[in-house]
Amino acid sequence: MSKNSTANHSTAIELGFEDEFLDHYTMMVESMEVMIEDLSKQTMQKRCVEELCRVFHTIVSVSTFLKIEPMIRLATLVENELKQLKDKNTPVNNETINWLFKISKMFAKWQTNMKTGEELAKVEYSLLKRPDLEKI
After folding, report:
1. b vs e for 36-54, b when ≥16 Cβ sit within 10 Å of the residue's Cβ?
2. Which of 31, 80, 36, 38 is nearest to 60 (CA)?
3. Residue 59's closest CA among 85, 36, 31?
């Protein structure tokens, strides 16, 4: 993490929490893309939406603890969209799948930023435009 972001997390650093978070975050980012691909399979949609909800809920929780604001905001947005999908229990459309792929790329970019100690990249504005969940 960047010096600016780690300076605010001395308790987490003392506990070694950030390294553990990065290990788990890496696994979540890697599994995210596979689950998004599987959303195109009707039989896998319910399970994938539930798993993606869990992944983003975990990211929200831990990034809140670590006070990583951009990650909190984007993960919360995605978690809320996934909860709507889960509640509606309707087929996931291509617009949503494509949006989630773009989201996963942002989280992968942040993974690289954290591993290299760089400041987190800015959230791409296009990611903030939520997909139309009703569209077929």
Report:
1. bebbeeeeebeebbebbbe
2. 80
3. 31
What is the model's pTM? 0.83
Tell me the pLDDT tens digit for each residue of 40-95.
998 999 999 999 999 999 999 989 988 899 999 999 999 999 999 999 888 899 99
Query: What is the pLDDT confidence band of residue 12, given thresholds at 50, 70 and 90?
Result: very low
Residue with token string 């970019």? 109
Say which amino acid occupies 93. N
Distances (CA, A) of 11 to 21, 26, 55, 86, 114: 14, 22, 24, 36, 18
pLDDT at 105: 96
For residue 122, the one-letter residue type is: K
Domains and CATH numbers, the chain: 3-126 (1.20.120)
Q: What is the Cα–Cα distance from 59 to 51, expressed in whole angstroms?
A: 12
CB-based contact 18:27 (threshold 8 Å): no
